[in-house]
Design goal:
2 domains, 11 helices, mainly alpha, two-stranded parallel sheet, 289 residues
Length: 289
């Protein structure tokens, strides 16, 4: 059906949900037919099973109608093992993968994308220049945050730089939370990511991040032409960046936070009052003669 519309000059999207179940069913049938099993008891032609399916997706030339068919295969991983047979097979066929972590999902991070494992072979070639400029810094910040967060669980004391990095990573993670069925225009994504990676959210409480994002976008839409410029040019040049920096700084001064947060990493830790400290006098007993 998809190929019919592709050859008719239309653009088709097919979501295969999921190829893991298909491979397991094919393995069961092959074993019943007494075909020689291979790795993980799958038959030797299981790779061909998936490749002949996915490689029917294509972009036709103008002479053939300029239609296209895009395939999004879904694969289930066992115990987050991306190196298993079926995941590696499908990864080798596709142009990249988006890896979803159940731990992130349970931590209320939606969408639960693992930035470190998710890759794209197309990369920045499929992005507009403005997104390409800000997304590289974002991925690096999040990857460093994930590794530092795992280390901080076992560390009792962290230096100021590590605390700032953890605080900024937590705010960037909150910034990337997105309601279901709520796509964001590219120009709004650029503004939000730029503000997060440049430290403009460091003075906010984490609970205020999403409200700050919404109100900032509304402020820029009503009072400036920055969003219009980003939408029409798809370029974040120095002049637009300077205007954006100026407008965000001006908006921050008028934003009413929930608790009036302090800058990440600059928290002041005052000593406890004396009446709240339990004091104990240690007396060393004298030895009797």
């Amino acid at each position: 059906i998809g190929q019919h519309w592709m050859y008719a000059g239309k653009h088709v999207l097919i979501i295969f949900d999921d190829l893991s179940k298909q491979a397991e069913a094919y393995r069961a049938v092959s074993l019943l037919l007494r075909r020689p099993p291979g790795r993980e008891a799958y038959p030797g032609d299981v790779f061909y099973l998936h490749s002949r399916l996915l490689e029917r997706c294509a972009k036709l030339s103008d002479a053939l109608g300029a239609g296209s068919m895009t395939g999004l295969p879904i694969i289930e991983t066992k115990a987050n093992d991306v190196s298993a047979y079926i995941p590696t097979n499908v990864i080798s066929i596709t142009d990249g993968q988006i890896f979803l972590q159940s731990d992130l999902f349970n931590a209320n991070q939606r969408p639960a994308v693992d930035v470190g494992i998710s890759v794209s072979r197309v990369g920045g070639d499929a992005q507009v220049k403005s997104i390409k400029k800000v997304s590289g810094t974002l991925k690096l910040e999040l990857a460093q945050y994930r590794s530092l967060e795992a280390f901080a669980m076992f560390a009792s004391d962290l230096d100021a730089t590590s605390r700032r990095q953890l605080a900024r990573g937590a705010r960037l993670t909150e910034l990337l939370r997105q309601p279901q069925y709520s796509p964001y225009p590219v120009e709004e994504q650029v503004v939000s990511i730029w503000a997060g990676t440049k430290g403009k959210l460091d003075t906010l409480e984490i609970t205020d991040v999403l409200r700050f994002e919404r109100e900032l976008i509304e402020h820029l839409r009503r009072n400036t032409k920055i969003l219009d410029t980003l939408r029409s040019t798809n370029v974040l040049d120095d002049a637009t960046e300077a205007d954006l920096d100026k407008e965000i700084d001006k908006f921050i001064t008028s934003f009413q936070g929930g608790k009036g947060g302090t800058k990440a990493g600059s928290e002041q830790f005052d000593a406890l009052p004396a009446d709240e400290v339990e004091q104990a006098k240690i007396v060393k007993p004298r030895k009797r003669k």
